[in-house]
Every structure is written in C-alpha cells, then in structure tokens.
Design goal:
The protein is mostly helical and about 750 residues long. It has 42 helices and two strands. The longest helix is centred in the middle third of the chain and has 29 residues, at about 375-405. The two termini are about 55 Å apart.
C-alpha cells in the first residue's frame, strides 16, 4: 500500500495531467491510497509538539507584554518590587525574567521610566551590578546558566536608548567611562596598562567580560548610542585594537562580531579594514560575517561591496567563499545589478567557482555590457564553440549519474554559457550574428535525416569507433546547447523560427542510440520550461507538467510507447533487420570458403541461394559471390555471425540469440573452429565491451577445444599446400604440431592475447 501511495504521489506530481491514469482498480483502494498519502506526504506539514510549545510560549509572551504596557503607576511599583532588586543586593535572588519583561514593556514609556528613576533605586542597582569596577557581572564565570545576565544587560541598554530620559540617564552613568577605561588597557597606543586587564584573552574566554561588547553592539545600532561611543573615544581605541600590531585576533573577532553595521558609521570602516588588511584567518572570519550581513536589508549593499572587493584577496579559500556568498545573494535581477555595480573581478568569474555568478551577471543587460567591455563574452563564446561545449557533455552526464545514485550534488544543472548569453537582447543578437545557432541546427538536421532515410545503423557499422564517439559527442553537445538556449523566453523564439524542436522529438523517439535518446528527452524538458516551448511541444504531441510556481521542466509524449521502445516481435530470435549487409557478409563468405567448405565437402548439401542469407524473415538478403551448395549447418553459422554483428547495436538481444543457438547446436560451439574465426573477425573490427568479450571467449565457446580443432585445420591446410609431406617419418610427423604452433605464435591475435 505504501508503494502504491508513493507511485500515486509521484504520478500526481510529475506526470502531465492529460496522461494521468488511476492505478487503483476500486473505490476502496482509492480510499486507502488517499489515507496513506495524507499520512506519508503531509507529515512534514504537521507541527511537532516542540514547535507547538514554542509557538504557544511566544503568543503568551506577546500577550503578557501587551498587558504589562497598560499597567498604572501602582501596578508598576508592585512589579518593580516583585523583581526583588530593591529588597536585596544578592543578584541571584532577583527575578531576571520579570526584569526583562519590564525592560521590554512598561519601562519603555518615558513617564514610567522617569517615575521609576525618581522614586526608586531600581536602575541604580541594576547599573551598579553591570559596572566593570564593581567586579560583580565582570567576574561571573562564562557558563550557560549565566548567559541570562548578558541577555538582560542588552535589554537594559535597549530600554535606556528607547526614550530621551533613558539616553540622558545612560550618558550621565559611570558604566560607559569604566568600559572605555577597561578597553584602553588593551589599546597599545593609549598609554594605560593593567596587570590583569578585564579584556585579556583569558578573561574573555572564562568570564562574562565579553558581554560588554554585546552592550557596545546595542549602542552601535542606535544614533544616540553611536554619539555616546564617539564621546568616550571608543572608535579611536577600536581602530588601534584592530590593527595588526595589537596582536589580539581573539578580541578583534569579538568586536566585529558583536557590533552592528546598519548605519554608515565608523564600524563599517573598521570591518572593512579588518577584511582587507588583517591576517588570513581574520579576513576569512570577516567574509563569513559579511555573508550574514547580506541577509540584512540595511547592510546588504555595504556587505555586497566588501565581498566584491574580497574577490581580489590573495587567499584562494577567501576568494572562493566570497564568490559562493555573492552567488547565493544574487537571487533576483536587482541583487545581480547590485553586484555588477561594484564591478567584480573578471578573473575570478572565469574560475569554476565563479561561473554561476558570471552566468547571472551575463543574463542582465548591464552585466552583459560590463563583461563585453573586457572582451570576455567574445572570448568565452569562442572557447565554448571550440572545446567547452564538448566538455560540457562529460560534465552534465557525470552530474546526472551522481543525481541518479543520490550523491550530494547541487540542485541546479551545471552552467552553460549559451543558455545565459541569450537571456539578454544584446546576447541573443550576438549569438545570431555569429551563425552559431545555424550550425547547431544543421548538426541536428543531419542526424534526423540519417534516421529518416534508414541509414543510422549503417552509419554505426561503417564508421570507425573513434569517429563514432566524436560524432555522438558533438551531437550531444549541440543538443544540450539548444536545450539551454530554449530554456529562456528569448531563446525559445529562436528555436521556434528554425523548427529544430520537431527534429529533436524525432531523434528522441526513433534513434537506435539509447544515450542520444536520453539526451534528447532531457533537452526537451529544458525547452518545456517556457510558455512558448510548452506550446511547441504540444504541437508535436508532447505534454508538459506545470505546478503552482511554473513549469517543472518535465514533458512526456501523448503516446508513451513511442518513447519506450518495446519489442513486440514474437520470433524466437530477435529482429536483425538493422544489421547492414554490405561488406560484412562478404567477409563471412570469405571465411567460410577458406576454413569451412574445404573440410565439409562430404556432408549432404542443400541448395544455396542469395535469398537464403536471412533467417526467420528478420533480415534481408546479403550479397555473396559464392554459388556452391551448402549444408544446414552453414546456415546456422551464418546466423551466429549475424548475431555477432548485432553486439555493437543491441547487446542484450545478440547475447540472447547466441545462447539459443548454442543450446540448439552445442557441437558447433565446442568443436567447429570456424566459430572462433568468426568471433575473432568481429572483435577485430568492432568495439566490444570487455564483459561481452569475456562472454564470447569464456562462456559461449569451449576455447581449448576450438583452439585444438583450429590447429588441426592449420596442419591439414599446410599439408595440402606442400609444407608438410604425407610420407614423412614418425619423428617428423610428431614435429608437425610444433611447426603449426610456431606459425601460430608468430601471429598471435591481439584480441586473444
């Protein structure tokens, strides 16, 4: 049932609506499948208990804050009293959660704040707890339970900055001058020293002293806070500390991590300085921080500019990370234009890590103009025409194989230059002017004509293997290029004008090369991603699958049987009509004339005619100049040879036919040497896979018996030709095998040895 539900889900998600058929034969089964579908595929939409608890806590917290904001003066005094801050100086007895709520709620109001400061020591005791020279907060151990003190301290600073009275109170408080003095202790240019500075490396790692930089971070996010930082010379000290001569990379990391960059302040300059002039480890840390800032709308332009600058960093890992962050950032045209505005390095865009970013830049008008300024487009286009288009075939097939076996790979297809080029009007115009697409169309048209005229099989038989590989690779590279071109609206118009889609469909359903058919199927999926592409495919009888967010890039023919080549023949032997008869059967006749007929002249003959060359009506007549009588065994040998010729075209059918012939004529495969001659002839002239060679020489025939019979035939032929005398002595006759074997060893066949 789970399998049926999975199939049903995949069918509804992947198969075009016009081709969907019910897989459930009854109403009850449909009902069960629907039940399993809900449980199996909607489980990720059901919130876990933990998530429910989190949501309910947040809702309760928001409601409580709204209620607290509406309290009157009497209720506020009661709440302040409940914090126990006024009752004791023991901060462990204070109600820190209530303190947080007060800071986030009623004390944000200026009247409540002023009244609390005027009538109680609430704020005074809180600020006294956080003052560095009181050594209360600063001396606490850095543990998970103590982190609450840092969080509440940040809320206190936010509360003070939320109203004018709070800003005034913070300006007059001693906490900022004391933090500044502690910071001056680690400033190499301040002249102030301390035996055990508050911000030493050891204390930052073991105590809550690092929390003061969180407080400074809150100040750096507010205009009033920035004014206070400038008032107490914080920025001057930060400039000094972030200098390499300070030798405090640990402190620099804390500073740039905790500070905020939402305004155009000194902090942006400090981060820019660290990102460009510090040690490699600090520069790498800064780049990661900039990646986080890209997610903040107020900081994204600043972070984008710095990351583009980091593309020129001398460290490769920093350049690579910068490219990855910018590529992830470039989700829409507006962000791509933002990157282009800062003119990224062309050299980095040409690297494998920068290709995807370059493609996004190329797909925009300003980006195309920028790349064209450096002649990058012309040079890259020439490189793709010459070699990169062919290399892409291996790249994409490796990617698809990894996807098939669930290896970790990117979700997007590997980048293709032509696909990005035609996304702009200028790029499409350049592509048309060069005539590249016309040459692509001619390659596809040539192969489609080869299929229509029935010459595809003959092409594979008569063309050397190396030339076949080059031609198939060229064809695949052209198909992938056309697919990526057709995946955009402008590129689809180009395909519509040439009519190349019809030819790709024809190759997909008619070609005998399964690899080419598979490539065509995937290419048609790329073309189906646009409205025009979907219409073109609909005109030739293919349906496309759509979803709420657009086309899925998947299409199927109306007649699925045309895509899947199912063999409907009922003959015991497979259809061999695709095997060409020219020249190949002449070789068969030559071998038979030399190695079979001279040794089988006494057998009962059958009349041989040219039309008897086929078997089972599956193959046409083969040309032959031989006019002698032949035996029935001769015809079986001819069937063996024709199935051997079928191996490069259809390995499965050929192997099945050979096994059937062996079961009906086992003697031929054990003792007839001509069978070995025929196998050697095919292995010598055609490219056969290693496992098939092993089947032919180790499983199909008895190699030892056939080699022994072949040696006997060789000795007999030598004797008849006069090399060996029939009346030689016994000693000389015993040496005959050695002579023939010596002759054989001097002509060892490369297939066997």
């Amino acid at each position: 049932m789970i399998l049926l539900s999975e199939i049903s889900y995949m069918q509804s998600f992947l198969v075009p609506d016009q081709l969907i058929m019910s897989i459930a034969p009854s109403f009850e089964l449909n009902k069960q499948i629907e039940k399993y579908l809900r449980n199996h595929h909607n489980s990720n939409l059901i919130l876990t208990e933990h998530v429910h608890v989190k949501l309910s806590e947040q809702v309760f917290k928001d409601l409580r804050l709204k209620m607290l904001c509406g309290v009157d003066a009497t209720q506020l005094k009661t709440l302040v009293s409940d914090t126990h801050v006024l009752a004791t100086k023991n901060y462990y007895k204070w109600n820190w959660s209530l303190i947080t709520e007060l800071m986030q709620g009623p004390l944000r109001d200026s009247r409540n704040f002023e009244e609390t400061v005027r009538t109680t020591k609430f704020y005074k005791r809180l600020m006294s707890f956080y003052r560095p020279f009181k050594y209360r907060f600063a001396s606490l151990r850095k543990t998970k339970s103590n982190l609450v003190f840092v969080k509440v301290g940040c809320e206190i600073f936010k509360n003070l900055l939320s109203n004018a009275e709070g800003v005034k109170y913070l300006t007059e408080n001693k906490i900022l001058p004391q933090i500044a003095e502690c910071l001056a202790q680690v400033d190499p240019y301040s002249g102030i020293t301390a035996g055990d500075p508050l911000f030493s490396k050891t204390k930052l790692e073991t105590t809550l002293s690092y929390g003061y930089f969180s407080f400074l971070g809150v100040l750096s996010a507010d205009p009033n806070g920035l004014r206070m930082l400038e008032q107490w010379w914080f920025f001057d000290m930060l400039y000094h500390i972030t200098d390499q001569k300070a030798h405090r990379p640990d402190l620099v990391k804390i500073i740039i991590k905790e500070m905020k960059y939402n305004s155009n302040s000194h902090m942006r300059i400090i981060l820019s300085k660290v990102a460009s002039t510090s040690s490699p480890s600090l520069r790498l840390f800064s780049v990661r921080l900039l990646g986080n800032l890209l997610e903040n709308e107020e900081c994204e332009s600043f972070a984008c500019r710095l990351l583009v600058g980091q593309l020129c960093d001398p460290e490769e890992n920093i350049r690579k990370l910068s490219v990855e962050l910018l590529t992830s950032f470039a989700k829409d045209e507006e962000k791509v234009l933002e990157i282009t505005k800062y003119r990224p390095s062309i050299g980095v865009l040409e690297t494998p890590s920068g290709i995807n970013l370059m493609l996004k830049i190329l797909a925009t008008g300003p980006g195309f103009e920028y790349l064209q300024e450096y002649d990058f487009v012309d040079e890259e286009m020439e490189a793709w025409i010459q070699s990169k288009n062919k290399h892409y075939v291996h790249h994409i097939e490796t990617y698809l194989a990894q996807k098939l076996f669930n290896e970790k790979t990117p979700n997007e297809l590997p980048y293709h230059f032509f696909g990005g080029l035609v996304r702009t009007a200028d790029g499409l115009r350049l592509f048309e002017v060069t005539g590249t697409f016309d040459s692509f169309s001619r390659v596809v048209n040539s192969y489609a004509n080869l299929i229509e005229t029935g010459q595809e099989s003959e092409f594979y038989y008569n063309t050397p293997c190396s030339e076949q590989e080059d031609y198939v690779t060229d064809l695949k590279s052209v198909l992938w290029a056309i697919g990526h071109i057709g995946s955009s609206d402008r590129g689809a118009c180009l395909l519509d004008m040439t009519g190349v889609v019809n030819e790709i469909v024809s190759i997909c359903v008619k070609s005998q090369n399964a690899s080419i058919r598979g490539t065509c199927f995937l290419v048609l999926g790329l073309i189906s991603q646009t409205d025009l592409g979907s219409e073109m495919l609909d005109d030739v009888g293919w349906f496309t699958k759509t979803a709420s967010n657009g086309y899925l890039g998947l299409c199927l023919p109306k007649k699925l049987e045309s895509l899947v080549d199912l063999d409907t023949h009922e003959d015991i032997l497979a259809d061999l009509s695709r095997v060409p008869n020219s020249t190949t059967m002449e070789e068969f006749d030559r071998i038979m004339d030399q190695d079979y007929l001279p040794f089988h002249s006494r057998e009962k003959p059958l009349k041989r005619t040219d039309s008897s060359g086929g078997f089972g009506g599956a193959a046409g007549p083969g040309p032959s100049s031989h006019t002698a009588n032949i035996t029935k065994e001769y015809q079986v040998l001819k069937q063996i040879y024709r199935n051997l010729l079928l191996l490069p075209v259809n390995q499965g059918k050929a192997v099945g036919n050979l096994n059937r012939l062996k079961s009906g004529n086992p003697r031929l495969f054990e003792s007839e040497p001509v069978v070995m001659k025929l196998i050697i002839e095919v292995l010598e002239n055609y490219r056969i896979k290693f496992n098939v060679k092993r089947f032919l020489l180790c499983e199909l025939v008895d190699l030892n018996s056939l080699m022994e019979a072949l040696l006997k035939h060789n000795r007999r032929k030598l004797r008849e030709q006069g090399f060996l005398s029939g009346g030689v002595s016994g000693e000389n006759s015993k040496s005959a095998p050695n002579i023939s074997m010596a002759r054989g060893s001097s002509n060892r066949h490369p297939v066997l040895y």
